[in-house]
Input
Amino acid sequence: MSAQTEVELAELGPSRAGAPRAGLATRLRRLRWGLAACAVLLLVVASAIFAPQISPHDPLSVNIRHRLAPPAWMEGGAARHLLGTDQVGRDLLSRIIYGGRVSLVVGAGAVLIAATIGVLLGLGAGYFGGRTDWTIMTLINVMLTFPFVLLALAVIAVLGPSLPNMILVLGVAGWPIYARVIRAETMAIREREFVLAGRALGMSHARIVFRQIAPNLVSVIVVIATLQVAQVIIFESFLSFLGLGIQPPTPAWGNMLGEGRVYMLNSWWIATFPGLAIFLTTLVINLMGNALRDWLDPHLKL
Amino acid sequence: MRPYLARQLVQLVVVVFGISLLAFGILHVLGDPVLLLLPQNAGIQEFERYRHLLGLDRPLYVQYWKFVSGAVRGDFGKSWYADTPAFKLVLERMPPTIYLTLAGLLVALLISLPLGILAALKRHSWIDTLCTGLAVAGQATPLFWLGIMLIIVFAVRLKLLPASGYGTWQNFLLPAFCLGATLAPITMRLVRSGVIEVMNMEFIKTARAKGLAEPAVVVKHAFRNACIPVITVLGLQFGQLLGGAIITETVFAWPGVATLTVESIRNQDFPVVQCAVILLALLIVGVNLIVDLIVGLIDPRIRART
Output
């Protein structure tokens, strides 16, 4: 999952080093996309927070008589179920609105855990170097060798599927990308004058790392974290899709998709709309991440 | 070349050791095999008896040693579900996974190489914009959803291709495209930035200055050099590709290691899960090593780097 983010970041390298900085017009145009994405994301977040107020139906209320109703614009669709209903007659739109809660909570929670572990280890490896660096780098290599999906599957299999477990697994599996980038940045900053001056003044290691080095890394961390939220959301929905994540009847985009797969022969909408919700959310988060990257301009080299 | 090789091998050993620790730890430290193996209403004595029987009452390092010495000989224990060695079960399912991965890689290259090169050569043109747009959209598309959409369109509606199954070339088309399409965006962006970087180099100017035709400049000078970062990253991405293959398998009911792993997780069949995880990780480590060696052969600068 980290590879994509890495490419996003790495793309900065050559184009920025060689070519002159993009013109104001281009930068504004890029920012415009970012702002639009940000607005859509706010809408998604707001609809998740205010789900009880805005969703037209109870996401759990079953109505067998209206089961498998197509979207409102199709023949046989009813206006009261805009996106149609699922196999037991639950309103799809309401379930999608509620499902956003799971995705956003898991995304934010897992990224928080991953960033905390990754940043601390990255700072340690980059600042102390030597054996500490070697140990942490080896750990990173082991983690990167494991396909993320496989690791998450194996751990969930032992711990059992639940919301906290999923946040924990995705968080603990996601730290290497932060550690790698932060390590490289720290190594560069470590040699700067203000750090040397701090050391000469007799500052403690902790003070140098957290007061002098860490503040310089905030924009990098923000950019990686934003892009990672999108990845975590996709993985969360995959786990739920397999039935190893959020358990039904709690609505989550992933388990709705999984349930919809069974009915895809006749009722395509059950699997299609939750997937569109995942697509839209990850798309706007990615766009926002790219815009943030351009705006904050972290000079990342990987 | 020899110190380079030695360095790679040392790292390989360390990584393999780490993988074995991780695979062992997931079952024995995070969980308790006996709790998973016995029904919940079993008595305490029964638990203790099984614990002793399986050697789980001995110190962890003794258990780990037993696990590793067995694993080295290809003995991962018997499946708790089917009465077959786990190793044999996993090995039987390996070829479909590898074929799918290779087919996906091929599709990804077929999409990303031409598009990436075109986008780089016609920078800021509509082709470039289109490619960037496709890449952004592609990266936001969940692979398993794409798979289902492909099935709905091509198998259910148009009835052109089979929705699942294995054996004929038709069976390969949808899964391979699905997997390839998700890897393509990253690869395309890499090819694009690689070619852009190379086209700004001095030797390209030299090649042009000596009057070489533009196609020859692109193919002979630019592309070859742009290949190095692409090969490196593709190699490192093999893990991600395999991860994608795992997702693809579960969507198309492909009879590979991943469907076996997911089945085994559902059945709580841990010897098989452990064996599958380790073998897949070893496969990735092996491919990464080979890629490193190839890149080292192509580019002497990398060999010198620590």
